[in-house]
Amino acid sequence: MSSIATSAGPAPFQRFATGFGRFSAVLSAFGLLVAVALSVPGSWFELGDRGRDAAGQSTYTDLTPAEPVRLAVAGLSGVELVAPLVSTAVEPRQLLETPPDDAPLVGWWDGSAKAGAPHGQTILVAHAGADGGGLTQIADLGKGDFVELLTKEGTMRYEVSSVRTFDPARLERVGVQLFKQDGGAGRLVMLSAEAWDGATYQRSVVAVATPLGQPTVP
């Protein structure tokens, strides 16, 4: 009797218990995978959307403030401009009193804010001569155009908010606001001094751009 029972194999209850145990193990493993998947940040599955918000627009991060070394302009107006920047200790008002013997150069006033600074204003100045100047193209910029300043810390992007032309008297009055460093929230001010008559510049084109930040990697 006992030999017959042994050859018949495990009892039905034992087979059920073994099968149920295997099913429970599979179910537990599946539950663990689901829990892990739910705990993983959604960004892991959205690598192609990095650098864009829910509306598909570009996003930006803070940039460590640093001296700008190159200017690049490209925007809706079709203006394209790339220019190296030279650091200068001469204040903008003094720069406007000199003839355009350095027309190809664009100067960053080192007394102004560095690119990426949360306070102050980053000031770029250039002179236009008979053959043009380093910033003459800013007159063709429009609201919404992008301007980028390259630094050793990365690239700071700005969006043009206004482009205006001032005569010498008007520029003298608004110069305090344009060049001051106790405000400005890190905006960019670009000035192209033009129409030198032998004694003074007859007009100055001023483009102001608001800081967006460092473009995130797409």
Describe this structure in words.
By secondary structure, the chain is α+β, with helices and mostly antiparallel strands. The chain folds into two domains: 2-39; 60-215, Sortase, Chain: A (Beta Barrel), CATH 2.40.260.10. The chain has helices at 2-7, 12-39, 92-95, 168-179; strands at residues 60-61, 70-74, 80-88, 106-109, 121-129, 132-133, 146-151, 154-166, 187-196, 201-215. Strands 2-3-4-5-9-10-8-7 form an eight-stranded mixed β-barrel. The longest helix has 28 residues, at 12-39. Mean pLDDT is 76; it is low at 1-51.
Percent of sequence in beta strands: 25-35%
CATH class of the largest domain: Mainly Beta
The CATH architecture of the largest domain comes to Beta Barrel
Number of helices: 4
Cα distance spanning the termini: 76 Å
Roughly what percent helix?
Answer: 10-25%
Rg over CA atoms, rounded to whole Å, is: 32 Å
Low-pLDDT stretches: 1-51
Shape: globular
Number of domains: 2
Q: Name the CATH homologous superfamily of the largest domain.
A: Sortase
Derived from helix and strand composition plus strand pairing, the structural class reads alpha+beta
Largest sheet: 8 strands, mixed, barrel
Offer a concise description of the structure.
With 218 residues, this protein is of the alpha+beta class.
Blueprint of the fold:
Elements: H1 2-7, H2 12-39, E1 60-61, E2 70-74, E3 80-88, H3 92-95, E4 106-109, E5 121-129, E6 132-133, E7 146-151, E8 154-166, H4 168-179, E9 187-196, E10 201-215
Parallel strand pairs: 3-4, 5-9
Antiparallel strand pairs: 1-10, 2-3, 2-7, 4-5, 5-6, 7-8, 8-10, 9-10
